[in-house]
Structures are given as C-alpha cells and as structure tokens.
Write a structure and sequence with these properties.
By secondary structure, this protein is an alpha/beta fold. It is built from six helices and nine strands, in the order H-E-E-H-H-E-H-E-E-E-E-H-E-H-E. The strands form three sheets. A five-stranded parallel sheet has the order 4-3-7-8-9, sandwiched between helices. The protein has a two-stranded antiparallel sheet with strand order 1-2. A two-stranded antiparallel ribbon has the order 5-6. A hairpin with a 2-residue loop joins strand 5 and strand 6. Helix 1 crosses helix 3 and helix 3 packs across helix 4. The two termini are 25 Å apart.
Length: 183
C-alpha cells in the first residue's frame, strides 16, 4: 500500500509538458511549496535521515535548492551555504562547470563558506542526470568540507542520476523523497 504522505506530496506537484524545452516533462515543485502542510511534510522527510549525523552545514544549490536547503538546515540546527551561478557571490569563489539534461552551466561557492571541520549535507530540489550535484560536491571538497549526505526532494530515476550519484559516492548517504518516472 502506498505511503499516504508520499501520495499526498506527489499530488501537490504539477507536471508541465515541454518546459523549459520541447520533450521535457517539468516537475514543478513550487506548487508543493504553496501548500503549507506539504512543504512542512517534505522538509521533515528530507531532514529526518540526517538527524544525528553531526551535519554542520547544508550546501544548497540555486535556486529551488535554496528553499529546501534553508528549511532542512533549520531543522538540523546548522548553517546553510548558497551554491550560486556566476556573478552572484561577492567574496572570493571557487567555480565548477557542469552539464545538465538540457545544457551546461557553472556553479560557485565562497572559498571561506565551508572548512575542513564541516560535515556537509548537499540539498537540491531535483536529481535528473547528476551534473549539478557533482559540481556541488566538487565545490564543497574544494573548500575542504566532508560531504556526509546528499538529499533531493524529487528523483527522476529513468534519467539515471540518483543511481550514478550513489555509485560515485558510496560512502555518502543519498536520499530522495519522491520518485517520478520519465524526464
């Protein structure tokens, strides 16, 4: 029998065909955020697997990852580090190029945002191919931090990203709350 929480959460997410380009079925998690019950439920489910892991920072990837990363950091009583696109951070940064399912981009982190004493949980709204997460993990490591967990609100398992992340980082706890078929 399906978990009623997961069923409820999935029903709050709208699917938009041909966005941002033809052939993509976009899972719009902003509709979940508009529902206070769903938002709180999702954040609880994202944070719970990492309780007791001594997470000191959540690294949240632009832009929807900020929403969930900040809320999860609050639940875990730790800091949140914003991973941004170029030109958005005012201090010295590390940069990492990456590929995604329909293009490429670059992410940046403040060089002093994370240090060798930090146990880091990486949070993003969605895992598709894994490019964004690889770039984020690379940035955390450039700062000297230890990635202890990776968490997604949504996984698109048909695209293989979550499996690739689990294979590439076998000593890291990888969690996704909601799975959707397709792309």
């Amino acid at each position: 029998m399906p978990d009623p929480k997961i069923t409820y959460l999935k029903q709050t997410i709208k699917s938009i065909a041909d966005f941002p380009q033809k052939g993509i079925l976009f899972r719009d998690i902003t509709s979940l955020c508009e529902d206070p019950k769903a938002f709180q439920m999702l954040v609880d489910l994202m944070a719970e697997p990492f309780n007791g892991m001594n997470i000191t920072k959540v690294a949240a990837t632009e832009a929807r990852g900020f929403v969930f990363g900040a809320a999860v950091a609050f639940k875990l009583n730790c800091g949140v580090v914003l991973i941004r696109k170029p030109g958005k951070l005012p201090r010295e940064v590390y940069s990492q190029d990456y590929s995604l399912e329909y293009g490429s981009n670059t992410l940046q982190i403040h060089k002093d945002a994370i240090n060798a004493d930090d146990n880091v949980l990486v949070v993003d709204d969605l895992i598709a191919t894994g490019g964004t997460i690889d770039a984020t993990v690379s940035l955390v490591k450039q700062c000297g931090g230890k990635v202890k967990g990776i968490c997604f609100a949504i996984s698109l398992p048909d695209l293989g990203g979550e499996g690739a992340v689990k294979e590439k980082y076998p000593d890291v706890r990888v969690v996704s709350v909601l799975d959707f078929p397709g792309h």
